[in-house]
Design brief:
Layout: E1 19-21, H1 26-35, E2 41-46, E3 49-55, H2 56-64, H3 68-73, H4 77-83, E4 90-92, H5 97-105, E5 116-121, E6 124-128, H6 130-220, H7 226-235, H8 237-268, E7 277-279, H9 281-291, H10 293-296, E8 306-310, E9 317-319, H11 321-343, E10 352-360, E11 368-375, H12 382-386, H13 405-414, E12 420-426, E13 430-438, H14 443-448
Parallel strand pairs: 1-2, 4-5, 8-10
Antiparallel strand pairs: 2-3, 5-6, 7-9, 10-11, 11-13, 12-13
Helix pairs in contact: 5-6, 6-8, 7-8, 8-9, 9-11, 11-13
Length: about 450
């Protein structure tokens, strides 16, 4: 089978050499066609100059007419060519196959299968059958389709790879920008909420004074004029007096809650810090739990997730606090997801997450702080655990997970802090993650950041 490529030209196809002078007898052409059954036609020339072509089909159609054998076989081919003129399609040997096929198909229908004269040099011509040309064109089309399909597959892989890289970069950029954004938001919220919190007490005192004054007016002027009485009824003064103090108490409670959130945001907003500092892991865990409070509380389809904290006596550790907080966020978010997945299968589940910390001191080893995050979620199989830290691997439905959380957490703990991260899990029982972080950041890890 002929091996073609996308840039194949006519000279790459099987060409036929059959040139006769127009002064030669028709019998010569009969003998030539008989000896070469696949010959599509004959090139006619005079004094080595191209005159035209005679196709096999046209030649034998002329011969099959009445008296055709006697008329043409014993006379020069010039006679046949004059009586049966056929316009010849002449193309150079370097014509692309697709171009040649297009010009071939543009000929009149009765010439559709006429051979093509291929000019190799000024006085050298060979013939190409229309069938071979169309078969070659079909093969070129197939090769083009295959190449486009392969290019499409490669492009898809490249796009996927770029999307994955983009997702990683965006995730990293988000987490970097998040620290600045959260710190800015916390600062912007803290100023006005401080005003609110500081003035609520005064507002409560002022309101009580005003209520006392109103009651004095009511006692000394029990029958106000019609306009005042109408205003009292319109604003429902009795309800306003009873509800105002409750409203101010709620404002005081809400302002206190916002101040607590702002403090946690400030702790969590260390995400963009490029320098290490000695911090309390307990503060980082508590701030992360506050960030996740909306997910931990009772939902429409499950009860509240109980948090059991067993904090040991641990020192402040030298670390990139924002990155460690990010690890806590990833692990606790995964624990919540696992609990929700199991609760869909077991409505009697009492969802809970246990967090334990302890100081580990081993001979010949630097002291470490261990943080255990244990959930009673759906658990994982050994196959899933083996791929746990693979980028973009996720067991969550499409759109609910990027598969980046644990893949990002691993290098933070291991590479940037010289620590360890371990996972133990059993399907239907739960999962335990253990982070072991050195109290002092190793010099090697600090250089690697």
């Amino acid at each position: 089978m002929l091996q073609l490529h996308l840039d194949a030209r006519l000279h790459d196809l099987p060409l036929h050499t059959a040139t006769l002078d127009v002064n030669q007898l028709g019998q010569t052409a009969i003998d030539l066609f008989a000896n070469q059954p696949r010959l599509p036609g004959i090139v006619l020339c005079r004094d080595r100059q191209f005159i035209g072509i005679v196709s096999r089909q046209a030649f034998f159609e002329g011969m099959s007419r009445r008296y055709g054998q006697d008329l043409y076989s014993r006379r020069p081919l010039q006679v046949f060519h004059t009586c049966n003129p056929t316009p010849a399609l002449v193309l150079t040997a370097d014509t692309p196959i697709a171009t040649a096929a297009n010009q071939t198909l543009q000929r009149p229908l009765e010439q559709a299968y006429e051979p093509i004269a291929v000019q190799l040099s000024p006085n050298s011509y060979q013939l190409l059958s229309a069938r071979d040309l169309l078969l070659a064109h079909t093969e070129i089309h197939r090769l083009t389709a295959t190449q486009l399909r392969e290019q499409s597959d490669r492009l898809t892989q490249t796009v996927n790879s770029l999307q994955q890289t983009q997702t990683q970069l965006i995730q990293a950029e988000k987490m970097s920008a998040l620290g600045q954004m959260v710190a800015g938001i916390a600062h912007e919220i803290n100023n006005p909420i401080s005003f609110v919190y500081g003035n609520v007490d005064h507002a409560q005192k002022y309101s009580r004074d005003l209520m006392t004054l109103i009651q004095l007016y009511q006692r000394h002027y029990p029958e106000p004029n019609r306009e005042i009485q109408a205003a009292i009824e319109e604003i429902d003064l009795d309800f306003l007096i009873a509800d105002l103090d409750k409203t101010l108490n709620s404002m005081h409670l809400g302002a206190s809650r916002v101040r607590e959130i702002v403090r946690s945001l400030r702790t969590f907003s260390r995400l963009d810090e490029a320098q290490t500092k000695a911090v309390s892991l307990h503060d980082g865990i508590d701030s992360t739990l506050l960030i996740l409070r909306s997910r931990l509380r009772e939902q429409r389809d499950r009860p509240e997730i109980q948090i059991h904290k067993h904090y040991g006596e641990i020192p402040r550790i030298e670390c990139y606090a924002g990155q460690i907080n990010q690890v806590f966020l990833n692990l606790l978010s995964n624990a919540i997801d696992a609990i929700e997945a199991r609760y869909q299968q077991d409505a009697l589940l009492e969802p809970q997450i246990e967090i334990r910390t302890e100081l580990q001191i081993a001979p010949g080893q630097p002291p470490r702080v261990a943080v255990y995050i244990i959930d009673n979620g759906i658990g994982m199989s050994s196959e899933v655990r083996q791929r746990l830290f693979t980028p973009f691997f996720t067991t969550k439905p499409v759109g609910q997970g990027t598969g980046l959380g644990l893949a990002i957490s691993y290098p933070i703990v291991v590479e940037k802090h010289g620590g360890r991260i371990r996972c133990e899990s059993e399907p239907g029982v739960g999962t335990e993650f253990c982070l072991e972080i050195p109290v002092a950041l190793p010099a090697k890890a600090e250089v690697a950041v």
